[in-house]
Fold this protein.
Amino acid sequence: MALTNRLSVAAAVAACTLGAAANADIIAGWTFQSSSFVSTTVGAQTFTYPQSGTDTSFSSRHNSANTKWFNNVGNGSTASFNADNWQAGDWNQATLSTAGYSNISINFDMTRSASGPASFAVRISTDGGANFTDILASMPVIVNAASPTGAGTWTSATYNAAYTTTINNVTAAANQNSLIVRWVALVGGTATGGTARMDNVQVQGTLLPAPGAAALVGLAGLMARRRRD
């Protein structure tokens, strides 16, 4: 095969590889539909959502030993991750690896009861939780209620986009062997029964191209310029 033809084939293969990498992949996600998610779990300060067979986890920590974690209806699904007895500093968190991925985005649905915590910060750690950085310093949480108090109640049959938050291009989260995403209550609930609920948590990214594919594209471009000269 002539050199020009070989380079054309190589360029086509590399372009396909890079084109596929440009599409966002779901690196990890939680919809909280596990049948083993037992409601009204009480007495522990830390609760980990039951999940097996992966290197990811979703957990929650509250200062109150009276906190209950339970699975009320989600945003377009039958269950969600919910808890009461919120105090300032309590958190939910997702743990995963983003190794091999760039252009990280974080998507989630969140709501609260009228007496639940009204605002959260979203923070990430890439050193196992020793240090955290805000990626969203303050986020108001919409009450799970009809207008004008809320944006419509969550139901299993209908997804409501008003409750979805997307944080794009989280540069520091790219290509990390260990990433923690933490949602931290900035204020407590106004009553012990006040709840905050999450659903449809996703971390997405773009698969980094293999070094050889990038080199092929560069070589093909160089040869194309030479042919034009």
Remarks:
- The CA atoms of residues 87 and 188 lie 4 Å apart.
- Residues 25-210 form a domain with the Jelly Rolls fold (CATH 2.60.120.260).
- The helical segments are 3-21, 211-228.
